[in-house]
Amino acid sequence: MNAELLMTVGGVCAFGITLYWVRRRELREKYAAGWVTLASLLLVVGLFPELLRTFAEKAHLSYPAAVLFIALTVIYLFAFAISVTLTTMYRRNVRLTQELALVEERLRRLEERHAAAERPGQ
């Protein structure tokens, strides 16, 4: 199996897997867009390997080095975007946990006041 066929098959499989997980609501559309873009890139490079060879020639890289360079660049960018999103979600989770603790404390105080007001003789 040559690299072009592998990239084409990989692109088709990536499309299928992405659509499957989106339909099951296990993958948000926000992330699916990145995976579909990656699948598209794999598919285009697999179907038109001349594009990658042209890029390799213009960048003065060998063909395998160009494939590795592009793959690592895409992986880095996608991983960085996921890291930023996870950081945002972590901070939001911390803030929501703090707000929940404050609301629970307020509720506890209100319940104590209500219970005290219902007791006769006070």
UniProtKB/TrEMBL annotation:
Entry annotated with the keyword Hydrolase: no
Domain of life of the native organism: Bacteria
Keyword terms of this UniProt record: Coiled coil, Membrane, Transmembrane, Transmembrane helix
Positions in coiled-coil regions: 93-120
Membrane-spanning ranges: 6-22, 31-49, 61-86
Ribonucleoprotein found in the keyword field: no
Name this polypeptide is given: DUF2304 domain-containing protein
Species per Swiss-Prot/TrEMBL record: Frigoriglobus tundricola
